[in-house]
């Protein structure tokens, strides 16, 4: 629309422009005597104060009502809800979610991004701390060719938290099928380009967060180049994140431990601060040895998790991962985390207790994956360690692929965070009731 189009009859805009002009005139007439009074040139009259007040009131009304008229003009027909009401709802939701729990999620891979999609419905205060040990696929290629940190896991987390249209998400996840870019995703290339015009990788990710209107923050655990190594039970040492499970299967030997080189890399200060100030720190879901634990090997990350007053949660995987966690139950997952962190840090463990559909289970078992189960022996060990068990129907099957039900899992984590951190805090008690109501509304939807 041209400027003259906004002045056409029936739009209910000219009246508010006129009122605004009148208000500005009254403000200017009232402010001159006040300035003269401050300078000691005149006595202050009540007329001047009256004009200033009335003018300010007129300007305020004109701006508010004028904007509402514009929003009503921008109504999208056939939607049933006006653009204005959608804007109002979005602003209201944002104000509410700004008071949500401070959640830090540590890990990488598909599992982490799935969880983030659920968590962002309840809070804007999210920090995803993501591994940079990936050396396979498109990320590995960019790492090798451009000398940059691997963008793949970070890309998935950014998209999970981004406020973008579906077409934009499809575009960023698009993988080229031919030529020299075969297998590479457009989102990885976008991050690579942003890295090229930025001073460092941290700044590049910050800019991507801004461009895609990310809820919260996505942070690489470190901006230093690291290589993940795995030591197998047979004594062999495997170099490279992507090779560890492959060689473990080839040698038919379990992973004993993983470590990084160099081993004294610095974490991002923002990551440490986020853990320190969190209400809840979540480890997983994701590949135990190649997505979750590598973050804990970065200097000061494990110590920050140990010292935080946050509720510390581990989300157990639904299925074992061939070459990494073959035959693992819940306790062995926890044991591996605590071995690498040199002490117990987990307060709660979330475990799926829903049965996997038989036809899907058979497909996974052919590849060597089995459900991560909680047997009585594991239950006794976990309880003896003082870790509280949260079981639920956290399973979702999409296109024959098993994943966590992000809505159910996120709801239970947030509900627990409210009970632990809000219900006992006098300052946040009103938010506690407010978010309990929101949990009910989200569940119904």
Polypeptide structure, described:
It comes from Geosporobacter subterraneus DSM 17957. It is found in: Cytoplasm. This is Putative gluconeogenesis factor. The chain has about 450 residues and is an alpha/beta fold. It has two domains: about 5-75; about 100-445, CofD-like domains (Rossmann fold). It is about 50% helix and about 15% strand. The protein contains 18 helices and twelve strands. The protein has helices at about 15-40, 45-75, 85-95, 110-120, 135-145, 150-160, 165-175, 185-195, 200-210, 245-250, 270-275, 290-295, 300-305, 330-340, 360-365, 375-385, 405-420, 430-445, and strands spanning about 105, 125-130, 215-220, 225-230, 235-240, 255-260, 280-285, 310-315, 350, 390, 395-400, 400-405. The strands form three sheets. It has a seven-stranded parallel β-sheet with strand order 3-2-1-7-8-9-10, with helices on both faces. Strands 5-4-6 form a three-stranded antiparallel β-sheet, covered by helices on one side. The protein has a two-stranded antiparallel ribbon with strand order 11-12. α1 (about 15-40) packs antiparallel against α2, α12 packs parallel to α14 (about 330-340) and α17 packs antiparallel against α18. The longest helix is centred in the first third of the chain and has 28 residues, at about 45-75. It is elongated. The model is unreliable at about 75-80 (pLDDT under 50).
């Amino acid at each position: 629309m041209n400027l003259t189009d906004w002045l056409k009859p029936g739009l209910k805009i000219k009246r508010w422009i006129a009122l605004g002009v009148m208000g500005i005139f009254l403000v200017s007439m009232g402010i001159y005597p006040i300035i003269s009074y401050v300078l000691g040139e005149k006595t202050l009259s009540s007329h001047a104060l009256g004009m200033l007040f009335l003018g300010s009131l007129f300007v305020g009304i004109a701006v508010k009502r004028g904007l509402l008229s514009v929003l009503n003009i921008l109504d999208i027909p056939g939607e049933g809800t006006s653009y204005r009401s959608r804007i109002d709802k979005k602003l209201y939701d944002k104000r509410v979610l700004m008071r949500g729990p401070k959640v830090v999620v540590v890990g990488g891979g598909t599992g982490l991004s799935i969880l983030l999609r659920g968590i962002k419905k309840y809070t804007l205060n999210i920090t995803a701390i993501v591994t940079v040990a990936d050396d396979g696929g498109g990320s590995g290629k960019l790492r090798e060719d451009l000398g940059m940190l691997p963008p793949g896991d970070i890309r998935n987390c950014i998209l999970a938290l981004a406020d973008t249209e579906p077409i934009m998400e499809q575009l960023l996840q698009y993988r080229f099928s031919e030529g020299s870019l075969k297998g590479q995703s457009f989102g990885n290339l976008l991050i690579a380009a942003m890295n090229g015009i930025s001073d460092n990788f941290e700044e590049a990710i910050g800019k991507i967060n801004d461009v895609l209107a990310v809820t919260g923050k996505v942070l690489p655990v470190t901006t230093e180049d690291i290589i993940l190594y795995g030591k197998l039970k047979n004594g062999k040492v495997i170099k490279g994140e992507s090779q560890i499970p492959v060689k473990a299967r080839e040698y038919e030997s379990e992973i004993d431990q993983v470590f990084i080189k160099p081993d004294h890399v610095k974490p991002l200060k923002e990551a440490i601060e986020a853990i320190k100030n969190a209400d809840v720190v979540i480890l997983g879901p994701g590949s135990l040895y190649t997505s979750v634990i590598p973050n804990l090997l970065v200097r000061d990350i494990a110590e920050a998790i140990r010292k935080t007053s946050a509720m510390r949660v581990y989300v157990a995987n639904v299925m074992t991962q061939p070459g990494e966690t073959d035959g693992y139950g819940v306790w062995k997952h926890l044991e591996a985390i605590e071995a690498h962190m040199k002490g117990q840090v987990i307060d709660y463990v979330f475990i799926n207790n829903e049965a996997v559909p038989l036809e899907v289970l058979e497909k996974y078992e052919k590849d060597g994956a089995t459900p991560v189960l909680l047997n009585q022996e594991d239950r006794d060990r976990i309880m003896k360690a003082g870790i509280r068990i949260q079981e639920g129907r956290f399973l979702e099957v999409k296109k024959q692929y098993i994943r966590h039900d992000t809505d159910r899992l996120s709801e239970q984590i947030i509900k627990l965070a409210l009970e632990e951190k809000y219900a006992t805090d006098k300052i946040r008690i009103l938010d506690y009731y407010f978010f309990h109501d929101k949990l009910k509304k989200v569940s119904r939807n």
